Amino acid sequence: MAIDWISTLQEQAEFATRIAEDVTLTLQFPQLSDVQVSRLFRVVEQGASTFNRILEEMDKDDGVDDDLFEAAEDIADMWTKLSISTANKLRSLKGLPPIEFPKDANKN
């Protein structure tokens, strides 16, 4: 049975967006402990790992259009940013400097 990649990516984008909203709101709570942020980080990493498995399956499918891969890259970027944001909150609670997002030389 063929996978409907359009529906799969739409579902994943909606899920990642909901998680991003929740994570953003949660990270704003001033009373968060490092244990709570660590748990949140693990949830984000689990979501990213699940999406990586979807990307691996897409790579195996020769019939996937390039525009779907571009959409998948955008979703993967969302997970990466969530992971870094959550890691940075944990780092700040431990008095460590933040992880900086790499500067893309091709963007202004």
Outline of the structure:
By secondary structure, this protein is mainly α. The protein has helices at residues 5-27, 34-60, 66-93.
What would your notes on this structure say?
This protein has 108 residues and is mainly α. It has a domain at 33-95. 72% of the residues lie in helices and 0% in strands. The chain has helices at 5-27, 34-60, 66-93. The longest helix has 28 residues, at 66-93. The chain is elongated, with a radius of gyration of 16 Å. The model has no long low-confidence stretch (mean pLDDT 92).
Structural class comes to: mainly alpha
Instruction: Identify low-pLDDT runs.
Output: none
Terminal-residue CA separation:
43 Å
N-to-C SSE string, H for helix and E for strand: HHH
Biggest β-sheet: count, sense, barrel? none
Report helical residue fraction: over 70%
The radius of gyration over CA amounts to: 16 Å
What share of residues are in beta strands? under 5%
Mean pLDDT, all residues: 92
DSSP summary, beta strand count: 0
Q: How many helix segments?
A: 3
Topology:
Layout: H1 5-27, H2 34-60, H3 66-93
Question: Key terms for this structure?
Answer:
108 residues, mainly alpha, 72% helix, elongated
